[in-house]
Specification:
globular; mainly alpha
Length: 315
């Protein structure tokens, strides 16, 4: 959280967002660390509370003026400051520079609450807080809310208006990505032969999947998608076999982050969702994403190895 805040003061700004801290010749994106860290943290905190998770209250009332009452103080003491507050802080510090990453971190946090068997009423209360926060940000125009609003408007326009008469130079990057996918066909144009690449703003990161299809074809692309899904289903198997709660929840949460981010990127490329700027794990250009995705995979492999070696004892 501290590094992500620091990026706003000393970080490098691109497209109006300060996301990277220069360290030598490397550009560190702290939000990539934070997405993995919140999973680790929640897995730990939830694993410690499994014996009484069915009765645990973690979300304080929206009526903040009642927080000094005994009931609300107990909620903060038992779960609010250890589970709810870190989720809020994580999303809040990422939001000003990268709205979609904040949404992804929130979605993954909700998934961790579900994996950790938190009561549905508590999860719903977290969502209520999020809705209030989104409304507050939108009304005041904080962070990159204008950019997010513009992307949503563009997405709606692509679905609701006739685009056949639009000049080629006025096409959006999402439309160009769909053209790239169409051009790729079954077998693709060949490595490095993408024709649409030069016409897009961030082809190597935001639309890497479209260029992958254009160069290698839909057959290889389907294998790539299957590999992402396979990571998730393997993590489910690890989760079911692991006798200890913390590493079990950690491995499933990290796999969900990798697979979820990949599917989010792909859905943007085919215009199912508005543009998000999320990278395609292990494929898109981006050193921080590659580094911490690899670290996450290493955690999953570490849990798997210790299960095989019988090093875990049941909680």
């Amino acid at each position: 959280i501290g590094l992500t805040l620091l990026a706003y003061f000393i970080g490098r700004t691109t497209n109006g967002a300060a996301r990277w801290i220069p360290i030598g010749g490397f550009q560190l994106q702290p939000s990539e660390i934070l997405k993995v860290t919140i999973i680790m943290y929640l897995a730990r905190q939830l694993s410690l509370r499994q014996k009484f998770i069915s009765t645990l209250q973690i979300v304080p009332s929206l009526k903040f003026w009642t927080w000094l009452t005994p009931k609300q103080r107990r909620i903060w003491r038992d779960g609010g400051r250890y589970i709810f507050a870190p989720i809020v802080l994580t999303c809040a510090v990422i939001l000003p520079a990268h709205t979609s990453s904040a949404v992804l971190a929130f979605a993954i946090s909700l998934a961790m609450l579900f994996i950790g068997r938190v009561r549905w009423i508590e999860i719903w209360r977290v969502i209520q807080w999020a809705l209030v926060g989104v409304a507050f940000v939108a009304v005041l125009g904080l962070g990159r809310s204008h950019t997010a609003g513009g992307r949503i408007s563009t997405w709606i326009e692509l679905w609701t208006t006739d685009r056949t008469e639009i000049p080629v130079e006025d096409l959006s990057d999402t439309e160009r990505s769909m053209i790239a996918i169409y051009n790729g066909g079954i077998l693709g144009r060949g490595a490095g032969q993408s024709a649409v690449r030069v016409e897009m703003t961030h082809p190597e990161s935001d639309y890497a999947f479209a260029l992958f299809v254009e160069e290698y074809g839909i057959v290889i692309a389907m294998i790539l998608i299957a590999l992402y899904v396979w990571v998730f289903f393997r993590a489910i198997e690890i989760f079911e076999r692991c006798p200890k709660k913390f590493p079990a929840m950690l491995s499933l949460g990290v796999a969900l982050l990798i697979t979820g981010q990949a599917l989010l990127h792909i859905m943007v490329s085919v215009n199912i969702l508005p543009e998000t700027g999320q990278t395609l794990p292990l494929i898109s250009r981006g050193g921080s994403s590659l580094l911490f995705t690899s670290a996450g995979l290493g955690m999953i492999l570490g849990v798997s190895r210790q299960i095989i070696d019988g090093l875990f004892k049941e909680d």
